[in-house]
Amino acid sequence: MKNRCFWVTDSKLYQEYHDSEWGEPVYDDAVLFEFLLLETFQAGLNWLTILNKRENFRKAFDNFDYQKIANYSDKKQQELLQNEGIIRNRLKIQSAITNAQLFMEIQKEFGSFSNFIWRFVDGKPIVNCFHQRNEVPATTEISDAISKTLKKRGFKFVGSTVMYAFMQAVGMVNDHTSSCFKFHHSCL
């Protein structure tokens, strides 16, 4: 049996996510937007809840196509509010649209969202050396800075805790604990 990070449950879906996605560096804007959308919907909820609904979100939100989402009509918002397969929260649905619009503004300004977001960590993952769950932070100065910057630009549901979870998900920070089979570096 593989030794995984403390937060991974017996759920096959959770294990697959941990083993193949979590902490792996993502530079593709489409995937970055997918995680941004999912993390904002996760705010206040359990990540496994979101993972279990991920394919429903994919269908409901046009395969996470931010260009389409940015132009969602009131009718489409109403459809989403009726969709039992996703988190039916009016503010989070509206934030997905707003965030998609702002995501594209950042792309115009920086060439890509990836260029913008990865500059917070100088373009390479921060590799941590945590041994126990109580060492893994919920926020850092960097997630505070990202949150503050995005909020100033008008993004919603991007508090520091959400942004740190985003950083972990897209590999901007590698928080696999030392007992995890995905931990591949030495602690100095």
From TrEMBL:
<dbReference type="InterPro" id="IPR052891">
    <property type="entry name" value="DNA-3mA_glycosylase"/>
</dbReference>
<feature type="binding site">
    <location>
        <position position="5"/>
    </location>
    <ligand>
        <name>Zn(2+)</name>
    </ligand>
</feature>
<dbReference type="GO" id="GO:0008725">
    <property type="term" value="F:DNA-3-methyladenine glycosylase activity"/>
</dbReference>
<dbReference type="Pfam" id="PF03352">
    <property type="entry name" value="Adenine_glyco"/>
</dbReference>
<comment type="function">
    <text>Hydrolysis of the deoxyribose N-glycosidic bond to excise 3-methyladenine from the damaged DNA polymer formed by alkylation lesions.</text>
</comment>
<keyword id="KW-0378">Hydrolase</keyword>
<feature type="binding site">
    <location>
        <position position="176"/>
    </location>
    <ligand>
        <name>Zn(2+)</name>
    </ligand>
</feature>
<dbReference type="InterPro" id="IPR011257">
    <property type="entry name" value="DNA_glycosylase"/>
</dbReference>
<dbReference type="GO" id="GO:0046872">
    <property type="term" value="F:metal ion binding"/>
</dbReference>
<keyword id="KW-0479">Metal-binding</keyword>
<feature type="binding site">
    <location>
        <position position="18"/>
    </location>
    <ligand>
        <name>Zn(2+)</name>
    </ligand>
</feature>
<keyword id="KW-0234">DNA repair</keyword>
<keyword id="KW-0862">Zinc</keyword>
<keyword id="KW-0227">DNA damage</keyword>
<dbReference type="InterPro" id="IPR005019">
    <property type="entry name" value="Adenine_glyco"/>
</dbReference>
<dbReference type="GO" id="GO:0006284">
    <property type="term" value="P:base-excision repair"/>
</dbReference>
<dbReference type="InterPro" id="IPR004597">
    <property type="entry name" value="Tag"/>
</dbReference>
<protein>
    <recommendedName>
        <fullName>DNA-3-methyladenine glycosylase I</fullName>
        <ecNumber>3.2.2.20</ecNumber>
    </recommendedName>
</protein>
<feature type="binding site">
    <location>
        <position position="180"/>
    </location>
    <ligand>
        <name>Zn(2+)</name>
    </ligand>
</feature>
